[in-house]
Amino acid sequence: MADSRPVSDDSGPTSQPTAGGSADSEDEPLLVVDELQTTFYTDKETIRAVDGVSLDIEAGETVGLVGESGSGKSVTARSILGLIDDPGRVEGGSIRFDGHELTDGSWEQHRGDLSIVFQDPINSMNPVYTVGNQIREALRIHQGLRGQEAREEAISLLEAVGIPDAPRRLEEYPHQYSGGMRQRAVIAIALACDPNLLVCDEPTTALDVTIQAQILELLDDLQREEDLGILFITHDMGVIEEIADRVNVMYAGEIVETAPADRLFDEPQHPYTRGLLASIPGRTAEGDELPTIGGEVPTPTSEPDECRFAPRCPAAFDACERIHPEHVDVSSVGTAGVETTDGMSGAEGTRGMEHTAACLLHEDRFEQSPGAATFEANGGDSQ
Length: 383
Ligand code: SF4
Prior knowledge:
Layout: E1 31-41, E2 46-57, E3 62-66, H1 73-80, E4 88-97, E5 100-101, E6 114-117, H2 121-124, H3 131-143, H4 147-160, H5 166-169, H6 179-192, E7 197-201, H7 209-226, E8 229-234, H8 237-243, E9 246-251, E10 254-260, H9 261-266, H10 271-278, E11 328-329, E12 356-357, H11 370-377
Parallel strand pairs: 3-8, 3-9, 6-7, 7-8
Antiparallel strand pairs: 1-2, 1-4, 4-5, 9-10, 10-12, 11-12
Helix pairs in contact: 3-4, 3-6, 4-6
Bound molecules: iron/sulfur cluster (SF4).
Iron/sulfur cluster (SF4) is lined by residues 270-271, 307, 309-310, 313, 315-316, 320, 325, 359-361, 372.
């Protein structure tokens, strides 16, 4: 739901790398996140939950953020919305929304422009207020609507998200809605804030596949009508294939690959992305065991001087243990690491669009292990 909690003083950055306030936003994407650093300080350790993340979203575009649980996706979303609580802090990098820097403490001024839809609709709504009350409250705060005007707008929002008999449903409580209808209602509350950017944090994970498909279609329709920018967070590569225009793959606090969606699915260049894609049901031959990525996502507790994926990577070689890979342009690299002749090798329509990966396999200066060569030759399958 749209979260209207005040921004804690603690969520402000300790450094301010870019100037705040309005800027020349004409050519800038709706959202530009640059080298974002969000850290949690506990008695035992310092967790670099978001460690130098950069991404951008244009108006009317859906950008996916994918990765396993614990990779930092939700902390990235909450950082963008200014919802990091103690003991966490956004302490570095820049978040520019519509030309305005947010990390200088300006989240509250843009609260209605950025809305979030969480995974669990029952916990996103207040059980003691009717759905109508909750939509009208958002309309009052963010659009200044009251009385009959607010009621009519609330009805039209419920209708827009596909809830039948909206005038009656408005007066019901969240527990009287089914799971799919609750998620639609949460989206209606988010839309009541009249946002330009909608952050969807695993919004379909708790729903069955039929309802999931309906919610994805709803988001698609709303985006086209409202020209919304959407950041869609999920661990489900199947969902991201369906909805995203571009995709960022996140691992242990870092983005390790970014590409247009069709290019990422056709020509993944990071071993982690390949592992995620290989584990989508239906991609393996019938009767074959579904491949998995062994091990778990590590908790990033220090500045990396290695590849954080190395302990789990089937293509790891010596240098991976001592050098932290930077993003390199892999737009012209094909599936088996072969340079293509025309500068691209993915699906139609990806020419000139950026595809980068943070993996030493793509840096010529290293002599790789035979295992890495086999991995490449097999198109990312280490078997
Ligand atoms: S840098 Fe090395 S360990 Fe990391 S993903 Fe690439 S090959 Fe694997």
